[in-house]
Amino acid sequence: MDNYYPRLRDLREDHDLTQQQVADYLQMKQPQYSRYERGLRDIPTDVLIRLAKLYHTTTDYMLGITNHR
Known about the structure:
By secondary structure, this protein is mainly alpha-helical. The chain has helices spanning 4-14, 19-26, 30-37, 45-55, 59-63. The protein is globular and about 30 Å long.
């Protein structure tokens, strides 16, 4: 499950969003969101769920548990 950090970036880029846009959606500052993408901080469950909704995918996919979006 260590491979979920790159998935955050890939999902964001697949949706043509900037880190700032995602941070705004999550109501946080961009550097805080960047730490999640770079694997410097674990993602809180509530943030993970909101990202899954934003990207129309499952938390299992985002965490690398499954490869099915």
